[in-house]
Amino acid sequence: xxxxxxxxxxxxxxxxxxxxxxxxxxxxxxxxxxxxxxxxxxxxxxxxxxxxxxxxxxxxxxxxxxxxxxxxxxxxxxxxxxxxxxxxxxxxxxxxxxxxxxxxxxxxxxxxxxxxxxxxxxxxxxxxxxxxxxxxxxxxxxxxxxxxxxxxxxxxxxxxxxxxxxxxxxxxxxxxxxxxxxxxxxxxxxxxxxxxxxxxxxxxxxxxxxxxxxxxxxxxxxxxxxxxxxxxxxxxxxxxxxxxxxxxxxxxxxxxxxxxxxxxxxxxxxxxxxxxxxxxxxxxxxxxxxxxxxxxxxxxxxxxxxxxxxxxxxxxxxxxxxxxxxxxxxxxxxxxxxxxxxxxxxxxxxxxxxxxxxxxxxxxxxxxxxxxxxxxxxxxxxxxxxxxxxxxxxxxxxxxxxxxxx
Length: 406
Ligand code: PMP
Known about the structure:
Layout: H1 2-5, E1 18-19, E2 22-23, E3 25-26, H2 37-50, H3 60-79, E4 88-91, H4 94-109, E5 115-119, H5 128-137, E6 140-144, E7 146-147, E8 152-153, H6 158-161, E9 165-171, H7 183-192, E10 196-200, H8 212-215, E11 219-223, E12 234-238, H9 240-244, E13 256-259, E14 264-266, H10 280-296, H11 298-316, E15 322-325, E16 334-339, H12 344-353, E17 356-357, E18 359-361, H13 366-372, E19 377-381, H14 388-405
Parallel strand pairs: 3-17, 5-6, 5-9, 9-10, 10-11
Antiparallel strand pairs: 1-2, 4-12, 7-8, 11-12, 13-14, 15-16, 16-19, 18-19
Helix pairs in contact: 2-10, 3-10, 4-5, 11-14
This protein binds 4'-deoxy-4'-aminopyridoxal-5'-phosphate.
């Protein structure tokens, strides 16, 4: 792996800096990834040469901007093996994508007593929109339980879990524990009871090969910023057949075909769901990020991330009084933990003083943390530009901190 990745860190200006006099060890990749030069340059090039508003322009720059924006849509479709560009709706990110599904498909299709099946692992982005929808429609939320600190799903009684389910919405990889969920198997089960399915791929899209047709989901969402793209851009895969029957999300320019004073006719999907001037530069940056990742190879990224997570987990296990969360086997590229006698905030603050960036808190999975019986965990999350030497440095810093605090 190091052969494939040698020199790759030079592409990331942010990684070369010192923090408090120490080389930055950036282990907060599950929150957001750093950006390589090709992404930064693509955005700059777009603004310097092609900047204009998209669609309906009769001038060169508008044509170029439209080609760049629609080219990015094509690239996203290819990245997740969607059958058509019509299946791809640009959003601000995962959160907006899930809210879009709740506000359109959800409001049009769910009724009192219908069950929305989630897991206990969900990020608040894949929980709160469904709570709001449930309050509005009378639908009810049900949760696939997780088993203790390992955080894998308890699938022992699938028939009972899927009774009356109209929507299954689940994370692919847990941002809190690193659990990789069997999404294809669960989507197949949902299809068997005619339920619609959504996969939250925020933590998986940039970390392993994704194929929406192999997964068999109706919707899938991800954010550009977690896979080396810019913030403020993401995508929703929505099966074209479902989009046809979905009401619009927001009203405004771009999403209409004909407007009169009292009513409007809407554009065809996916444009019907993209009101207003879109994030064109964001789409350009996202396109560059997807190219960058595929040059490395997502199988390689997955192998690297999981190897690093497993190494970090083994090294963390050297400490006394540590509780490590997440699956024993395969996991995404992160590890979460708490120390019996050290507050997570003290730990992260002191690690930062040594240049090590980790995240502490409930990681937007408060109900899961309630279930685990901890208010907060510390999380180190990795990407392809991280190294074993950085894990060693992280452990060395933790050893120092533990000595100081105990
Ligand atoms: N789902 C998961 C699993 C996540 O990790 C995140 C980001 N932490 C989100 C959803 C929300 O993503 P965003 O904030 O980019 O919309």
